[in-house]
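Loading example: each entry is read as four labelled lines plus one structure line.
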Amino acid sequence: MPKEDMISNMAGSCLMGRARLLTRVLTGIYDDELRPFGLKATQLNLLVVVAQLGPVRRIEIGRMIHLDPSTLTRNLQVMLNNGWIEEVADDEDGRGLPLQATRPGMTLLEKVSPAWECAQGKAGRLLGADGAALLRKLSSGLFGTAPGRV
Amino acid sequence: MPKEDMISNMAGSCLMGRARLLTRVLTGIYDDELRPFGLKATQLNLLVVVAQLGPVRRIEIGRMIHLDPSTLTRNLQVMLNNGWIEEVADDEDGRGLPLQATRPGMTLLEKVSPAWECAQGKAGRLLGADGAALLRKLSSGLFGTAPGRV
DNA sequence: GCCATGTTATTGCATATGCAATGACTATGC
DNA sequence: GCATAGTCATTGCATATGCAATAACATGGC
């Protein structure tokens, strides 16, 4: 294959590049809506997961949404500092404590809910109905999947 | 809406969260394949864009793939340090110089091409034919789009 | 109990990402 | 030709992300 075709191919069809581009745009939409509330899209994402899974260990969050433990240590530290989540005392396992949303964290969730809805609406219109449905389907197959399986 | 439903809704249907999850998984696939060559998925992505667009200004790259100029300054600096790209002297505009791929950069592109093909294959199988097609369609609508348009 | 093995969390390192502010240059109006 | 407005790039700041190495704990076999 000529060099130019190889480059055009990599530039025009790389699924990773496309996914990253799409993610940057989508994240920007949510960040814009959430800015008045002082949290970022990624933080809301994490807060929601912690709120839903109740007392939950870091490793489990990582398995759920495919995040490296080291990333979680740091991202969750920010949220601990903000008082949105807290460590739960009662635990059988000495390797770190489970996390749960605090009352202020839950209140914040309710407060930002309309802004999230708005961003979600914009994202849905950008993706189109079939796009949104497919994105949902695709990623639902990844939820809770151990890394490295293809 | 009860609090639990609100949380389930945000956790289970957030398009941004899904897109980020998917992107993490996909990026991991490409990173694994590219690791022996000493470059990361994001760097290959950028190298390909510079190689294709020829002498090109940072701002134009940013418009193409929706990347903040400040992000580009730093990401491109790494690639300049590695000698994969270079600044082009002849320019009418004194605000920074256009960039192009160097010969070593082009050689690297050819060398990693099979690894990229392999990762692309894995990504395609993970997404399925319709998923890959849709991801392509979705993001092609974003190429070259000015930020903030929804 | 002790050791080998496995699991969980953290830390050092490097990069990716975006906002706000700034500097440097260009283009436009007069 | 100069002042104003606009464009391009960089820097400071904060966060997001993952790998390799390590620390801390758990578990199973003996």
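The beta strands of chain B are 85-87, 99-101.
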